[in-house]
Design brief:
With 188 residues, this protein is α/β, with parallel strands linked by helices. It has one domain: Rossmann fold. The protein is 20% helix and 31% strand. The protein is built from 3 helices and 10 strands; from the N terminus they run ββαβαβββαββββ. Strand 1 and strand 2 form a beta hairpin. The model has no long low-confidence stretch (mean pLDDT 93). The structure holds inosinic acid and magnesium ion.
Length: 188
Amino acid sequence: MSFYEPESVVCNGSLFRLYITKEQLDKRVAELADQINRDYDGKKPIFIGILNGAFIFLSDLMRHVRIPCEVDFFKLSSYGDEKVSSGTVTERKDLDADVQGRHIVLVEDIVDTGLSMKYMVERVREKNPASVNVMTLLYKPDAARHHVDVEYVGFEIPTLFVLGYGMDFAQEGRNLAQIYVIDEKEGG
Ligand code: IMP
Ligand code: MG
């Protein structure tokens, strides 16, 4: 099977260049799943993916998980159609799973200011789970404005706008199999 893997891509008028390759993603996602296999052995965790961005990462991650587990989704939106966070979180779909007494892993594509994840952690804690940990594929440490403990990080990146592997720019680009970064020379 071959994926759509261009070296650069124009999305909504901005140029993006290849930043994290399929090989790097595959390797790191498998490593994160191995950590889960060890840390959650005997605990039957519920993975809660934050839609829309986490859908590809979570589906790849789960295929490497070897312990019994469940999955559910929560839908938030904070970005609107811009490249900077709107600063408010809107809840668009609540959980279906009963998380009381369960071990929860919140799974995000990217933690930027931390606003969305802080909101999610608080929202899930209200429901009395046994534990809550956060996993994010990408983490922008310099952009953090809201404190959130992130247990599992795929890659730390600088404060740059990225695209692909589930992440969008004004809803486009989620289908890209690799991660791209905005080309600042082009004034993206
Ligand atoms: P935060 O609430 O500021 O941490 O932003 C988190 C959400 O914004 C993530 O779940 C992403 O969906 C989105 N986001 C943050 N940075 C980027 C980016 O560089 N590209 C695409 N989406 C992003
Ligand atoms: Mg997201």
